[in-house]
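Morning run. Coffee first, then this:
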Amino acid sequence: MSKRHRGDPASPRHIEDLERFYRRHVDDVTRFVARRFDDPHTVADVVADVFLAVVDSGDAYRSAARNERAWLFGVARHVVSAEYRRKHRVDELTSRVAGRRLLGSDDIARLEDRLVAENDGRVLLDAMSALSERQRAVLELVVVDELSVTEAATALGITAVAARVTLHRARTRLRKAVAAPGGESPAAPLDFIGSKA
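And here it is:
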């Protein structure tokens, strides 16, 4: 097989590679997105957009093969940020109607189950509002999405040392925020945050 044929997006080999990539990561990406949005239609759209971004990246997902999970979470973070910006610009009523694909009742039930399963994750993310954006990003990727510190650093484009220091500071600040007098404790247990860098 020639090099040109391998890079051809329409080649059967390329399509099979993308399908295997999708199957390997769709559950992780869906969990990642479901913690950030509470509407099943939005979750379905954003997950689809993440994998469309992968397809649009050409062969970048192949060159990231050693760290494909970290690379994919970096892509997902950009897509989620873009969706937050879009929602901010568009009226709520228009955003419910615009750009949604129709889902079957089974699809909606499955996504609603996933949303319920991710309630604790959303509560914990709300408690993280006291953290800086970088601290939240590192903590989410390491604790919630279970990337290694090195993978999280790769996804964020920072060094592993910077990620480890940021993670330590994030955990310290989050514990203080949760333990503050008069502050509400998240439903998720504090030890969920973990202590190892």
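The radius of gyration is 18 Å. Good start to the day.
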